[in-house]
Amino acid sequence: MTKSCFHCNEPIPHGLELSVNINESSQPMCCIGCQAVAQTIVDNGLVDYYKFRTEPANKGEILVPDQLSKHKLLDDDALQNEFIHQDGDTKESILTVDNISCAACAWLIEMKISQLTGVKQITVNATTQRATVKWLDEEIKLSEILAAIDAIGYHALPFKASIAEELNQQQSKSFIKRLGISGILMMQVMMIAIGLYFGAFSDMSSHNENYLRWASMILSFPIISYGAYPFYTGAINALKVRRLSMDVPVSIAITLAYTASAWATVTRQGEVYFESVSMFTFLLLIGKFLEFRARNRAAQVSANLLKLMPLSATIIEDGHPKLIAAKKLQLQDSVLIKPGETIPADGLISHGQSQVNEAMLSGEQKPVSKIQGDKVFAGTINGDGNITISVTSLMSDSFLSQLIRLSESAQSHKPQLAKFSDRIAQYFVALILVMASITALYWSQHMPEEAFWITLSVLVATCPCALSLATPTALTCATTKLNRSGIMIKSAHVMETMPQIDLYAFDKTGTLTTGQFTIDHVELYDAPFTKKELLTYIASAEAYSEHPIAQAFHPYFDSNTRINDVEIIAGCGVKAIINNQTLVVGKSKWILDQIASSEGISTFVKNAACVVLLDNKLIAAIQLKDTIREDAQPLLARIKKQGAKTLLLSGDNQEGCRQVIDKLSIDEAHSQLSAKDKMSKLKAAQQNHNVVMVGDGINDTPVFSAAHLSIAMGSGADIAKNGADVILLNNKLDSMTTLLNVAVKTKRIIRQNYAWAFGYNAIVLPLAMSGYITPYFAVIGMSASSILVVTNSLRLLK
After folding, report:
1. Is the separation of the CB atoms in 495 and 615 below 8 Å?
2. Which of 283, 627, 333 is CA-nearest to residue 461?
């Protein structure tokens, strides 16, 4: 029976035996082209392509020339849907970058890639070993960016949780293998060294001494080549672009020690230091491994989030369920979600009701009740009911994907203190090399037999690894801690600015109040609809809006109701076409301004939360109810206790604001403000205060941009649009206390890290130059310094 190619499904020529291991099973290929393409799909962690494809791929022969360009396959739009977010002409992706060892590596990648035409922005997080890159697809392709990263000695792939975990396991195994080989050989070299030491006092024959030296040189060679390989690659990558990294002095020290010893062995003149170079290479590897484990622990949060995305989804087609790949879901698809299943996409519930666990987004373990018309998010878990949702966002645009992108962006951006330390570290490496040269010159004149060892100690002991790790590890741990508490940091300056805030400005609706409006009373005026019909039409129109008032109509949402040409007027209301008639719903002031004459309009209409027009004719007024948040008063009390002021800036009418002011202790309040009015009040307050603006994130973007710091309440669909620096995903006001506490603690820990890093180098440099520190202690001190900084930062996770 003729076999078919697994890739393109064409017959395999008789006698040809080509295959690719896919999902732990050897699959036959019909030609070298198909084999190359299939292997690329496997190597890039995209084997799900075969699991969910609907038809065989094109024959691979035509792709062989493109295969010469290593990552060309990743330019395929069908594959990019899974890991790329597109905003207009700009594409954005998170990359997993292998071989990053320190902050200098991150700087090197940022510097080189940012110079490419078409790359708008790239930020690299050395702690998580991930990069966020934005580019113009018309000017440069993803494959070209990945190839450029490869060219400077690093390897990058689109970030997927499975790939990240696999790469971490590979790195961990590689570290352990290097440690194992180096440790075993080091012990052998040390045993030979003992023989050489004793031989120096017992007249060992020159033949035996030479034999032991040669044995030491051979045994230590794998240690300084294979074991120390990561240090060499880091140093070479930096020197290629005329940059000094922390690996440069370490590599020079190892190379000099071994070369000098090998020369002494070959010429039979001078001393050998094989045991020493073996030992401090082994100790350096231990330090690197412990640092890797600590950084890996801090980097797991977004990888764990991405694992929540399901692979498959059940869509309803012609009334029948059909299983497809979740990444193939399209807008408006109807998806069935059974009890216990993970929701595969953001959407609105069109049928059914259930309890949904949203702990992965908000940190709140208590399930949230969801009914028809409510929004659900990808990655959350359905509880006890069958629900059907209408997809509103593709996977790459889902709330969870946005959350991961924002998390990576926040961790990658460096505050001014971190940028300063990076610059200092670069100059410090140059200073180390200069001081090492001075040390070698001095001691070669005064004590030649000790010059080499003392110079070696200077090179190793003063390596500024701790200095470069001081800020990135603390910020990564702090961001991870806040994410677990349902707080998303979007801007780099938050940790620095938050402790300086002395005036808290609040929006009212959705901030100090719950924003969970309910309909209190509906007044109809010659309406051609019943009350229920009207509310159903309004619910369909408001489904396109993310304003808190829109939530009040969700219980009346009916997926069978048809409306057209929905238009959202920011800060005012909604327009839609219903049965060829124009329906307008919005604030009373905005609506009444559109009516030719407002004479005879009742007080109820003027004070109503919503007024409804049909073809410019008043047909209804609706009064809504809202409640003050339970945690609002305790938060305001804590703010006053710390000596800060409070300010209310609301667009609501005076009566609505008065109800809040009567129950909450607010120093100053202003009502009926437009966005422009809020800006004016905020800027006036900034003359004497550092101001944070707290709002619901909807229509507050201009005000947010004006404040020293801005905080938005949890508003899932709005997360990508608002300009807030912080988003309270858990929708809890008292999370601001957690934010302040973590910010203060982070600032303190960063200062501790710098104090230790600068203090250690200030003490150890003169001691090393004076000859009081041996290379063994130099390695232990340098490694311990880095591990101490990382461990101190990890305290933020507790």
Report:
1. no
2. 283
Angle between helices 416-446 and 735-769 (to 10 degrees): 10
Residue with tokens 């994130």: 697
d(CA 351, CA 318): 16
Distance (Å, whole) CA 493 – CA 484: 20
> Is 770's pLDDT higher than 50?
yes
Count of C-beta atoms within a 10 Å radius of residue 435: 18
DSSP secondary structure of 718-742: GTTT---SEEETT--TTHHHHHHHH
Looking at residue 437, its amino acid is S
Strand pairing category for 668-670 and 347-351: unpaired
Contacts of the segment 706-714: beta carbons below 8 A, 24+ positions apart: 706/679, 706/682, 707/505, 707/682, 708/497, 708/500, 708/501, 709/493, 709/494, 709/497, 709/498, 709/501, 711/736, 711/739, 713/510, 713/511, 713/515, 714/362, 714/486
DSSP state at residue 443: H
Which CATH fold would you assign to the domain 487-513+628-729?
Rossmann fold (3.40.50)
Residue 435's pLDDT is what?
86
Which pLDDT band, with edges at 50, 70 and 90, does 432 fall under?
Answer: confident
CA 356 to chain CA centroid, Å, is 25
Decide if 308-407 and 518-625 have a common fold: no
Distance CA 620, CA 527 (A): 7
Q: Say what the alpha-carbon torsion angle 284, 287, 289, 290 is, to the nearest 10 degrees.
A: 170
The Cα 136–Cα 662 span in angstroms is 53
* Phi, psi for residue 64 in degrees, rounded to 5: -60, -45
The CATH code belonging to domain 308-407 is 2.70.150.10
Encode pLDDT of 260-293 as tens digits. 888 888 888 767 778 777 877 787 787 677 666 6
Burial, 637: exposed, middle or buried (Cβ in 10 Å; 0-12, 13-18, 19+)?
Answer: exposed
For 404-415, what is each residue's pLDDT tens digit? 666 655 555 555
Region class of 580: left (phi > 0), else alpha (psi between -120 and 50), else beta: left
Count Cβ atoms below 10 Å from residue 520 Cβ, excluding itself: 13
Q: Which amino acid is at 165?
A: E
Instruction: Classify domain 78-159 at the CATH topology level.
Output: Alpha-Beta Plaits (3.30.70)
From the CB of residue 58, how many other CB atoms can be counted at a distance below 10 Å?
13
Q: Which fold has domain 518-625?
A: Calcium-transporting ATPase, cytoplasmic domain N (3.40.1110)
Residue ranges in 465-542 assigned as alpha helix (H): 465-484, 494-497, 531-542
Nearest-CA neighbor of 52 among 314, 419, 323?
Answer: 323
Burial class (CB in 10 A: 0-12, 13-18, 19+), 471: buried
Residue 522, token pair as written in the block: 């509906």
Provide the residue ranges of all domains of the chain, joining segments of one domain with +: 18-68, 78-159, 308-407, 487-513+628-729, 518-625
